[in-house]
Give the backbone structure.
Amino acid sequence: MIESGKVVTIDYTLNLDDGATVDSSVGRKPLVYKQGGEQLLPALEKALAGLEVAETKRVTLTPAEGYGEVDPGAFRPVGLGAIPNAGRKVGAILTARGGDGREREVRVHEVLKDKVILDFNHVLAGRNLNFVVKILAIE
């Protein structure tokens, strides 16, 4: 049974409400995590607690349980010259370095005549996350 401290191996698929598959381990290497080790979203980890090997569970996480709501304050204008030509299109994913030196992905939200509006929200912010998880092993 999945409980704190156990090492768990799972296959998972993550879909959005529109049916788009965001990520899946099916057909690839399964995901291995330690229950209680803060390696999964906390609400997903909680939903898997108590399951046994070979069980499959569907779990839907709200934005608050996943990557949060979209923060309007996370949209920032940047001069067009700071964006490479290939990144000057809506939906392009760029890498930005924060004040702390860490890199993170940002999405181009809007391209204007002299600037680009970047979205610093997590790409899955504001979205329900629909997981299908199959428990493969528990150690």
Observations:
- The first strand starts at residue 7 and ends at 15.
- The CA atoms of residues 33 and 39 lie 6 Å apart.
- The domain at 72-119 is CATH 2.40.10.330 (Thrombin, subunit H).
- Residues 42-48 form the longest helix (7 residues).
